[in-house]
């Protein structure tokens, strides 16, 4: 068995989608071994980068696959990748035990469409299983308190970096 410290990080992208009022999209996850209670089950859209895929197209793909959102404009990105470790006791449950956590490339996007475009029940035109059971717009300063605690430092950094984009 591979030691935890020797496991790689899973490449991932994350997106902070901001509406016209400067509120961020968050969804309540439907499942996952890392979600231990209802308060900390909320997160921004994120997902894995496929082999050979560039992060920016991956971010747009993941957003579409999780929310059906396509009407966005890019506001910014965090240049470096942000990493977190998952708790050792769930390593075997998350990603089949192949990763110790994720390294994420984060983007800020402005939602330019109508809310009727958002479809978490049949995301990606119905081609993908729902990952969110509910969604809402949330002030960005609340985001770190909604995420599972081991992801909180990443969310704190994302909020700090993207706060300047709120008009």
UniProtKB/TrEMBL annotation:
Pfam families: NUDIX
The UniProt record lists the keyword Hydrolase: yes
Protein EC: 3.6.1.-
Position of sequence motif Nudix box: 47-68
Stretch forming the signal peptide: none
Source organism, top-level taxon: Bacteria
Keyword Hydrolase annotated: yes
Cofactors, names only: a divalent metal cation
GO MF annotation terms: hydrolase activity
Domain Nudix hydrolase: 8-160
Keywords: Hydrolase
Coiled-coil annotated residue ranges, if any: none
Function, in words: Accelerates the degradation of transcripts by removing pyrophosphate from the 5'-end of triphosphorylated RNA, leading to a more labile monophosphorylated state that can stimulate subsequent ribonuclease cleavage.
Similarity-based family: Belongs to the Nudix hydrolase family. RppH subfamily.
Record PANTHER family: NUDIX HYDROLASE 26, CHLOROPLASTIC, UDP/ADP-SUGAR PYROPHOSPHATASE
Protein's recorded name: RNA pyrophosphohydrolase
Species: Rhodoplanes tepidamans (Rhodoplanes cryptolactis)
């Amino acid at each position: 068995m591979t030691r935890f410290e020797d496991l790689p990080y899973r490449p991932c992208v994350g997106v902070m989608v901001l509406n016209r009022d400067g509120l961020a999209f968050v969804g309540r996850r439907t499942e996952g071994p890392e979600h231990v209670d209802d308060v900390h089950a909320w997160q921004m859209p994120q997902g894995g980068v496929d082999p050979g895929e560039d992060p920016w197209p991956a971010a747009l793909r993941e957003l579409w696959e999780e929310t059906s959102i396509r009407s966005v404009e890019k506001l910014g990105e965090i240049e470096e990748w942000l990493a977190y470790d998952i708790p050792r006791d769930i390593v075997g449950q998350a990603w089949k035990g192949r990763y110790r956590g994720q390294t994420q490339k984060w983007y800020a996007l402005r939602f330019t469409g109508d809310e009727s475009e958002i479809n978490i029940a049949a995301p990606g035109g119905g081609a993908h299983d729902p990952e969110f059971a509910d969604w809402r717009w949330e002030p960005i300063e609340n985001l770190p308190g909604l995420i599972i605690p081991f992801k909180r430092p990443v969310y704190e950094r994302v909020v700090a970096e993207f706060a300047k984009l709120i008009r």
